[in-house]
Amino acid sequence: MTDSLQRVVTALDKVARTSLVWPRGLINPGGPHRVLAGTLLPVSIGEDECAVFGRLIERFRPAHTFIVGNAFGFSSCYIADVMSQHGGQSVVTLDSEVEGRGRDCAAVARRLADTLQLNLLRNKKGRSPEDTARAVETDCHDLVFIDGDHRHPQVMRDFEGILPYTDEHTIFVWHDFWMTGIVPCLRLAESRGMKWMGLPTSCEMILGTRDAGIFSELRDMFPAGIENQSPHSPLLAPAIIAKIIAQQVWESITYRLGFTHSVTQTE
To answer: For the chain, which terminus, N or C, has the lower number of CB atoms within 10 Å?
Structure first.
């Protein structure tokens, strides 16, 4: 797990210039997260959140993973690297390549995967759910990571788009519970028989499955998890986003002026 993270970070440093953000976490302690230097968005998952995926893959050994949202490939390459050591067969990402400098991010994601020689990873351009059926390469995925557009109802559309290519044993992961589009999707997932819990990671991850036995194992693995975690105030997301934009704008300006900073604080 740690080796995979080091490999991905080292390879990313070779193919792109990045900046660290939220070095001590955003909603909870954790992080750091990364952006391409001089950009505002997208922001990667935190290193503490990579560790969650590492534990899931080591324990459940998914053969096939599907990821909605890929940005510059940090999380997908980490997931693929760990899966390659535990019998994984495929990781497919679907990204519309429109967030931030979308084409630049996609190019970095491809170079990163090539540098790491992750032959099981296929990054595909397209929109979810319109292009989901075209993108999938198997009838059933063991692990699904939903981390695309976090606005409602897009998260629900992402979930419904991939649902036919899962079964009751599939583990679903959502990122950024603090963003308001996640909760309606979780309510929909509940109506489809899913149990879920929130993890106190930097940006808050959600783990869910329709299998009671697997869910019991997840609770044992992550005792700090909160089943059916209560939503945050609807005012939290706009406040955080405004602060992020202000900080990232300053980072972008100083980068273009040649005064680069390696760390942006959120305190």
So the answer is: C
Q: How confident is the model over 40-69, as pLDDT tens digits?
A: 889 999 999 999 999 999 999 999 999 999
The answer to whether 53 and 86 have CB atoms below 8 angstroms apart is no
Residue 196 near residue 190 (C-beta atoms within 8 A)? yes
Q: What is the DSSP letter of 35?
A: E
Non-local CB neighbours of 213 within 8 Å, separated by 6+ positions: none
Cα–Cα dist 229/19, whole Å: 31
pLDDT tens digits for range 64-93: 999 999 999 999 999 999 999 999 999 999
CA angle at residue 75 from 235 to 110, to 5 degrees? Answer: 125
Q: How far apart are CA 63 and CA 165, in angstroms?
A: 13
State the burial class of residue 117 (Cβ atoms within 10 Å of its Cβ: 0-12, 13-18, 19+). Answer: exposed
Token output for 160: 């419904």
- The pTM for the full model equals 0.91
CA distance 2 to 186: 30
Q: How far apart are CA 14 and CA 213, in angstroms?
A: 42
Q: Which domains does the chain have, with CATH numbers?
A: 2-14+62-237 (3.40.50.150)
Q: Are strands 171-175 and 195-199 parallel, antiparallel or unpaired?
A: unpaired
Task: Give the pLDDT of residue 150.
Answer: 94
Q: Cβ distance 138 to 88 under 8 Å?
A: no
Residues 6+ apart with CB under 8 A from 39: 100, 101, 104, 248, 252
The first and second tokens of residue 21, run together, are 């953000």
Cα-Cα-Cα-Cα dihedral sign, residues 52, 58, 61, 64: positive
